[in-house]
Specification:
87 residues, mainly alpha
Length: 87
């Protein structure tokens, strides 16, 4: 299996806080739920919410502010077509 490694600069440490290196391994697949089952919406929502928040916290803690801010913009631009409202 081909692995994609991406190296990104981390934030500069402050006088009170050291910035730890972060490794993110994206592997496997989400759990499989029976679509439409009573548990599907609640369990899948909890799973994706937890995954997204863990990723966001790790990136926010490790990236320089400028990189993190531009990441948010890039993600929104990638999804902009899904967010458009027709008049």
């Amino acid at each position: 299996m081909d692995t994609h490694v991406l190296t990104i600069a981390k934030a500069e440490p402050t006088h009170t806080e050291e910035i730890r290196d972060v490794s993110i391994h994206i592997t496997g697949a989400p759990p499989s739920w029976s679509y439409g089952s009573p548990e599907f919406f609640e369990e899948s929502n909890e799973f994706y919410h937890r995954e997204a928040n863990n990723l966001a916290r790790a990136l926010k803690a490790a990236l320089p502010c400028g990189t993190f801010d531009r990441l948010i913009v890039a993600l929104l631009e990638m999804q902009a077509s899904h967010l458009r409202v027709r008049r």
